[in-house]
Amino acid sequence: MTRVLTGLQPSGLLHIGNYFGAVEPMVRLQGESEMFMFIPDYHAITVPQKPAELRRNILFATAVYLAAGIDPKKTVLFQQSAVSQHTELGWILNCIAKMGELGRMTQFKDKSTGKGENVSVGLFDYPVLMAADILLYDTQAVPVGADQKQHVELARDLAIRFNKTFGDTFVVPEPLIRKEGARLMGLDSTEKKMSKSAASPKNYISLMDDAAAVEKKIKAAVTDSGTEVKAGPNRPALTNLLTIFSLVSGKTVAELEKNHEGKEYGAFKTDLAEAVNAWSAPLQMKIRELLADEAALVAVLKAGAEKARVVAEKKMQAVRTKIGVALT
Ligand code: TYM
Predict the structure, then answer these.
(1) Is any ligand 1 atom within 6 A of the Cβ of residue 154?
(2) Which residues are catalytic?
């Protein structure tokens, strides 16, 4: 069975790009793979966080995973900070990672632009902790959106480097990137991806947006010149909207194009907003139900961490031996 692992940062906001980029693929793979899914809370603190909010966001992320269909019996579901082997391996990998390769990470460049020296060392170093997350579990496949591909490639490079220096220790992972929907674009721009940290909430559809907000955002979404509801290489805005429609409805883009032949953008947007809302309403209801029982969410994470720790500690014992710090 393939070993699969992913994580999504616990920010209060998860958008449909996060959901279709990483959560839904995990749900689909359950049952046919060995699954690990975690909440990278130590990644979240690479930018300032309010403690009470972070706590709430960890529970929210847990509720989202469960509402989406992640089953703790089939997936080891846990909190990164509860398994200290992640930061331990992160440190060791720091010592073989190069400043140059981290400096080339486009996400770091994006997030640090304009901030000069005033960014945390953690933000710079974050892909190394991500490599540790992946390598600790002998992960073979990492379902992520396209923006995380470079980070998974760094994990590959570090695994290969470590194996060459100290002998075979880590499985070299592969990113698992879906064909459609691996990079949903912002509704307000055809150039920027849908992002939690976008300047305007009109950029994204949050999983928790109510029907009126979804309708307003979709009505305001940019479109391509012309009037046809058609996807294509020179129609980035409609391609994005049709991709979203396809993801939430399960219909193909070709089917949706056919259904909207001769219809105007306005009518198409009304249908799209309806489809998004029909998809998100039951999900939101489940998330709210799960959030009402905090103790149950904490218990799920605790049980998951216990299982994860066993796997992670076994790998760390091998790593400590390989690098020469294990004395017995
Ligand atoms: P994060 O929290 O930024 O994003 C979570 C997941 O959502 C995907 N994603 C998108 N997919 C499609 N369209 C978009 N517009 C879009 N925006 C984001 C991301 O690619 C990601 O899969 N570093 C990671 C979290 C992490 C992790 C890991 C992931 C930490 N350790 C180990 C995998 C394995 C992050 O910040 O993702």
Answers:
(1) no
(2) 111, 193, 196
